Every structure is written in structure tokens, then in C-alpha cells.
Amino acid sequence: MDMSDAQAIGDxxxxxxxxxxxxxxAGEDSGHTHESACLNCGTPLVGSHCHRCGQAAHVHxxxxxxxxxxxxxxxxxxxxxxxxxxxxxxxxGELTRRYVAGQxxxxxxxxxxxxxxxxxxxxxxxxxxxxxxxESGGIVQQSDPAKAEKAIAAKIATLEARRATALRxxxxxxxxxxxxxxxxxxxxxxxxxxxxxxRHEKVSDIAAIDHAVQKFKANPALTAYxxxxxxxxxxxxxxxxxxPFLWLLxxxxxxxxxxxxxxxxxxxxxxxxxxxxxxxxxGAANLDWLAGVxxxxxxxxxxxxxxxxxxxxxxxxxxxxxxxxVFAVVALGLFxxxxxxxxxx
Length: 345
Description:
Elements lengths: L2 H20 L40 H28 L1 H10 L8 H19 L2 H10 L4 H24 L5 H22 L11 H12 L1 H12 L6 H10 L10 H27 L3 H7 L2 H14 L3 H30 L2
């Protein structure tokens, strides 16, 4: 499967999950029974909903009904999420175990919560990232280093003129100084790219890994910036990448199956993504101490989820938490290689 196929799968999964988040119970409606047979499957109607496919007996065809269904879906999701999030944070193992056991109506599904978390994380990132970072990243993406350098130099000249004017008027230049520093950093990156020698040192027998490493070594700043744009689309790939590693913690177990591990991984990734949102917000509020404290949460959360979901002993939970932490780093590395390889595809 090439990268275009993977991107197509990403688009399909993203669209499917978005539909599921907005309307978790497809076909739900509070309309009236005006038809004698279901408009969806043709089954004779007995009540307000078809007992075969679940569609409402009466299908509204007004704009007001459309927005009514939309609001119903949003608030239905909201009601579930306020029951799911506290358990995800404080009792992740119990949440995982109960969902696997079949208690689905009370909680947001792992996939829907994961999509919501990823969307929120990228929205917060673009909101909290400085304007200088976003603009310099956009300029660095230009393929011609000479043109990129010229564009940045023009921006720097404009900022220096604004700074001189502000100084004459006695105004604070803090914001301009920060933006100017960002542009100077971008200029340095572009100059490094333009002067970098074109040489290829093989680092792996696997072509995809070798290509990804070479792309990163040639231009780490540009590669990282592009990776941010692809990470959202391919975030779903973290799930199949991570599940086999979790299976290794319980090899050949008859009690736990791949479905159980998938639910565990997806809820865990949702928590880690929401945790990154909290860290970004703390950083934006200049609460570096809080961001540091939050970074200690992942191993504790893994431990609690392992013990609650799989019923491990304390020693077993600690050992598996250590192993899972190592596996998580490896899985994240594979994900980064996937993203970096796509940036050069």
C-alpha cells in the first residue's frame, strides 16, 4: 500500500468518525408516524421507528428539522462526554473494562473521543502558536531557498521599520521583537538549507526509513513543519501501530483479545492527546511549572489503566507500565517516520 492509499484511508476514516461524532445514533428522530412502511428499508411500521433498521417513521424535510437534528446530535455527544472524561482521567481502567463489557450507551466511543481529542489538539496548537512561528513556517516551505530568503528579508525590513517607528513614539516593542526574532530564525534555517551539501549517507536498508531520515537531516525545521500538517490526517495510524505492542504485554492470553487492546489503546491515546492540550494551554498562560507537572501524568495514567482494565497486580502493573512506556516511544517513532516519509512522497 503506497502513501496515496494510506491518505485515502485517512480521509475515509476521518470522514466516518466526524459523522459518528456529530450524530452518534444515525436515524434517530422525534417525528411522527405518517408512513405505513419504512422509507429506508420498506418494512411495515409498528411504532415511531422501524424495528428493522431503526429509522424514524417520519422523515422531516425542512431546514429547521435539519438544525434540530444537528443540535440533538451535538448535545447527545456532549451529555456522553461529561460522563466519559472524568472516568478517562481518574478511572481509565474501569472505563475501558466497562466499554469492552458492552456498556456503550453511557460513554463516548473510543474512536469518536480520539477524533474529538485530535481535532481539539490541533485547534489549540494553531491558536496558541505565535504568529511568527506560523508565518515563518509558511515561508520556509517554499521550494526555492533564494526566493524564501528574499521573502523573509523583506519581512525583516518591514518589522525593523515598525520597530524604529514604535521606539520614536515611545511604544512597547515586545511583540515586534518576538516576531522579528522568529523571522531571523527562519532566515537562518533557509540559509542552512541553501548551503547544505547534497549528499546521501545510507542509514538503513529499509528504503522508507532511510528516506525519512535523510529528509529530516537535510532540513529538520521544514520537515517538522510539514509533519504537523500531515499528523492530523494520519493520526488514526497510531492505533494500529500501537495495538501489537500492547498485545506483547499479554501474549497468547485467552482472557484478552485484540478488540480489548484496541479499546485500551484508543482511550489511552485520547487521554494523551487531551493532556497535550492542557500542556499547550499551560505554556500559553506562562504556567511552565504546571506544564512540567502534567508531563508526569502519562506513566501514572498507563499504570492505572493497566491495573483497572486487565486486573494486574501492583508488581505486574509496574513492570507492564515500564514496558508500555518503552513501546509507546517506539510506536511514536514509527509514526514520525510515517509522517516524515509522507512529507517527501
